[in-house]
Structures are given as structure tokens and as C-alpha cells.
Amino acid sequence: MTTPRGSLRYEPALPCHLIDTTQYRTRTKRNPTALAALLNSIEQFGVLTPIWVQERAQDSDSLPLIAGFGRLHCQMTLGREFIPGLVFSGKDSRTQCLGYGVTENCVREPLPWYMLADVIDEMATAEDLTLSKVAQRFGISQSLCSKILGARARIAPQLQEAMAENGFGMRVIDLYAKLDEPEQHRLFARHIAEGFTADQLGNEVAKLRGKSIPTSAVLRAVLRFVSSAKLNPERPFEALVQRLMRLGKGLQAFEKKGSPLTELDAFLKKLFGDDDDRNGPAGALVPA
User: Fold this and answer.
1) What residue numbers bound the domain in which 252 lies?
2) Interacting residues of 227 by C-beta distance below 8 A, sequence separation 6+
3) Quick check: helix, strand or coil at residue 176?
4) Residue 284 lies in a domain
5) Were both Cys, which of 129, 211, 215, 238 would link to 133 (CB 3.0–4.6 Å)?
6) pLDDT tens string for the chain (288 positions)?
């Protein structure tokens, strides 16, 4: 997706009060730390990157904002009446302007996935595009495009923005999408409180879904813990054999106890806790 040429002009002083932030899917919520830094920068140096607006319609005095809500917000917070901007043609279609907004945002930082999903959906509907064509427009794979739309439909609306603010990637979002909304809310609260890794989250999702972990994942977990041993370079085989014997007895006890495979990771950490503290984490058991 490219910025159009010949269909825009630069205006050094657009009246802030005439800019309408409701027409397009501009990013109206920002990370407070990033917003404070932006405010400080604009206070010192002014607005260095022009906002993007569309020409006003004949029956309106407002200028629809395409991109730059954060800069506009900071400029108005500082009591400044004007802001530099690029003005796009009023003849550009809604889907073209949506595309411009995505382009501008992605140059600076990626749009939150749930906002990107809305834009993809609207563009596909308005222009009657296949998923493959939409994916090409955004320079992403068709598979990722499908995942984004699927997650938008399945993730609880109240959690979508929170997930984006916490920087959750598509791997984590895909895991949440496997659960119903009440389970998503409960797990999200634990996720934030306990600071799950993606691997740990995968185990929790597997437990909630009542799915067993494949034996290949069990073998990978065992091998990681075995490989974390600190071996005596003079007698490496002796130390390794001792560790394997200890592992064998422990696994027999684990099987006799009848614990679910999702608890094997915690069991191995406890069994080899001292060794792993010296040699770093051995990794987590992850559902395939």
C-alpha cells in the first residue's frame, strides 16, 4: 500500500478545532508513557510530522482526521490552535483513506491487531476483495490475515485493547482464541498477575481445554532438563548416568502418582531445581 502522489497538499497551519476525529479509525488511545513523551517533544520542538486529514466536504466545515490523533491531542493540550498537516483530496474514497491511515501508522509503529482487523474487514467488504487480495494490500500473508480476523471475532471485546497494550503477539492471541469468553477473562487476570510466558500460557490453555500434551512435547521437555546438567569434564558420563537414574526414578513416581502431563514441567523443575538454578532455566513444556 503506497501513499498517493498528486492528491495531497501541505498546510502549515490547520485549525485544530475544525479537525474531526470520528470519521476514520484513528488510534485514539495510546500508551500513557509514549503519550507523555510525545507531549514533551511537541512542547519543546513543535509537531515535526504533519497529521493527515481529508479535504472538507462542500456541506461541512470539518476536516476528517486520517492519522495523527496523538499529535493533535498534544497540540490542543498545550493550548495551541494550529497544527501542520497533509490534506488529501475529498474525492478519495473511504477505503482509500482507511488505507492511507494504516500506511501512516505502520510507518511509525504497527496498528493494534484488533484495529487492523476492522480496517481489513471494512476494505474487503467495501471493495469486494478476497482475503488473498486484502493480504497483498497490507503486505502480510493470507494466513496471518485470516488469524487476525479470526481473533477479532473470538477474543472478548473488553480484552482486545488490553492485549494490544500488553504487547501480546499473535501466538498468545491464538491461544486465547481457543477459549470461551469467561475462560479468557479468568485466564487473562492470572496471566497479568503471574506473568506467564507464552509456553506457560500454552500449558494453562491445554489444561482448560482438557487436552493432553503429545508425547513428542514430553520428550522435548525431558531432554531439555537432561541437557541442563552441569557435568564434570573429567568424568562427564558418570554425572550424566547419575542424572538419568534420578530422572528415571522420578518419572516412575510421577506416573504412579497419576498426575496429568501438563504438570510434568513443574515436576522436573522441582526434581532438578538445584541444578537448574546453577545452569539457567531449562524451558517449559509446551503443547504442540
Assistant:
1) 215-279
2) 282
3) helix
4) no
5) 129
6) 334 444 667 889 999 999 988 877 555 566 677 778 888 888 988 888 788 888 876 667 788 888 788 889 999 999 999 999 888 877 766 666 666 666 555 445 556 677 777 777 766 776 677 888 877 777 778 888 888 888 888 898 888 878 877 878 888 888 898 898 889 999 999 999 988 888 888 888 888 887 655 566 667 767 777 776 677 777 778 877 887 888 888 788 777 776 666 677 777 777 666 444 444 433 333 333
Residues in the chain, overall count: 288
Phi–psi pair at 149, nearest 5 degrees:
-65, -40
Q: What are phi and psi of 235, to 5 degrees?
A: -140, 65
* Number of separate domains in the chain: 4
Cβ contact 17:50 at 8 Å: no
Query: pTM to 2 decimals?
Result: 0.46
Q: What are phi and psi of 14, to 5 degrees?
A: -85, 135
SS3 at position 244: helix
Other CB atoms within 10 Å distance of the CB of residue 173: 22
In angstroms, the CA 144 to CA 269 distance is 35
Asked whether residue 274 falls in the same domain as residue 260, the answer is yes
